[in-house]
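Researcher: Here's my situation. A collaborator sent me these components and asked whether they could plausibly form a single complex. I don't have experimental data yet, so a predicted model of the whole assembly would be a useful starting point for our discussion.
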Amino acid sequence: QVTLKESGPGILQPSQTLSLTCTFSGFSLSTYGMGVGWIRQPSGKGLEWLANIWWDDDKYYNPSLKNRLTISKDTSNNQAFLKITNVDTADTATYYCARILFVNWFAYWGQGTLVTVSS
Amino acid sequence: DVVLTQTPSTLSATIGQSVSISCRSSQSLLDSAGNTYLYWYLQRPGQSPQLLIYLVSNLGSGVPNRFSGSGSGTDFTLKISGVEAEDLGVYYCMQATHAPNTFGAGTKLELK
């Protein structure tokens, strides 16, 4: 059974660094063709893709967030991570992680974690 | 970036009615290997999105066969043949052919 669960700080202040963790089970990020992506959704709005990391450690980022994103993984502990530097109120959103397997993009999602940026 | 335009933005339907949602891309989503990375997701109220359709027309695992996807190039359609109450929510198309991945703005399906 595939499950994913996001965790984060809940609330942080502008200019701080947001650190998110995706803890998953039922698959391994060392399996050929496997990947994990991060997607966010401001309240009442649409979905925005942020980044993917693949089994071979290939990484892809949304250029709209310029150089603020860093994605990484800990294969032995079944976790993926996303850091967003220099946050502001526009980064307030629910953040999801989701699994990719070959062409099956985001077939499994976590429940999401709400992050609020406020001074 | 590829822009995906979904129409309509809101769709009112009765139970049992068949409905269609359009997703038009600003560029062809056919890649050089002959794959078209167009996906459909449903987000029910208060829930995470779930995959309905992958690669234009392939049903996701456990997805009822009243859902179907079609299209090619820049024009794609999701059809629900006989809406059920559990189908209410927001439908999103997504493309993964061109970086960065992009989502459509969503189509809200509500009861008439």
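Model: Some features of this prediction you could bring to your collaborator: The CA atoms of residues 36 and 72 of chain B lie 8 Å apart. Chain B has a mean pLDDT of 97.
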